[in-house]
Amino acid sequence: MNRFFVDRKNIIGDQKLIVLDDPEDVKHIIKVLRLAEEDILEVCDGEKGIYIGEILSLSKTKIELKILEKFLSDTEPPIEVTLFQGMPKGTKMEIIIQKCTELGIHSIIPLNTARTVVQLKDKKDEVKKIERWQKIAEEAAKQSKRGVIPQIGLPINFSQLRDVLPLFDLVIIPYEKETVLGLKTLLKEQMSPKKIAVIIGPEGGFEETEIEIAKELGSMSISLGKRILRTETAGFVVLSTLMYELGDLGGI
Questions:
Q1: One Pfam family for this entry, by name (predicted)?
Q2: Residue 114 lies in a domain
C-alpha cells in the first residue's frame, strides 16, 4: 500500500477526515497510481501516527479521505542517530540522505570543516538545497515505510559543534589515524545510549586539530578498519552498525 505524509493540520479527527493537498502527491495519486473513489491509501502524520483512509473525493488540488483505522508506526528504531556530514562534492549528499533515511537516521546536518571544498553561494542557495534534500528524505521515508521524515538541518560550521554535542549520549567521529579504539569495542563498552551523534569528514578528511577539538567536546575517535572509506560510505557503515547493535536492523 502506498504511503503519503501529511501535516497534522490536514488530519481533522472530529470529522474522521484527511486532506491531501500537496500538488505532487495529488498528481501522483491521480495520474500515476490512477486511484479513484473508494480506493484505500496509507497516510502518516510524520509523528509515528499511521492512518488507513478511503478516498471520498478527488480534484486537481486535493484528495479527501475517510479515516478507517489509526495506529502507531512500528518502523522507527529505538535510538535517535544524527549525522553531521562533512559537505561532499556533486550529488553524494543526495545519496547519503536517501540511504541513511532507509536505515533509520533521525536527522542529518551538513557540516562545514577546514577541508570542505563545496560552499553554498548564499542564503538563497542554501535554502534551495535544503528544500531539495528534505524532499529526498521525504521520498525515501515513503518508500521505506518510515513513521517520521528525517529532518535535514541548515549547514553549520565545525566550531558550532560546541553548542550541540552536549545534547547527545554518545558522539562518534571516525578517523583514519585512530589505531586504538574500534567501533565494535566502543559499542560493547556503552550503556545503551539513546541519542547518538556521528561526525563524518568531507573528501579530504579532518584536520588533526579538529579531531582534538572533537575529543575535548567528548567525542570518541574510532577506527572503521584498515581500509580508507569514502565520505559517502563511512556514514552508512557507522549507521548500519549502530542500527544492528543498538537498533532494530536484522529483526528480533
A1: Methyltrans_RNA
A2: yes
Query: Dihedrals φ, ψ of 209, to 5°?
Result: -65, -35
DSSP state of 29: I
> Which residue is listed with cell 570542505?
116
In this structure, what C-alpha cell is assigned to residue 164? 550541540
Residue 63 and residue 103 share a domain: no
What are the helix (H) ranges across the chain? 23-27, 92-103, 123-143, 161-164, 183-189, 208-216, 231-245
Mean pLDDT over 117-134 rounds to 83
What does the alpha-carbon distance between residue 56 and residue 44 come to, in Å, rounded to a whole number? 18
Domain of residue 11 covers: 3-72
What predicted TM-score, i.e. pTM, was given to this entire model? 0.91
| Grid cell 550529488 in the structure block, residue | 91
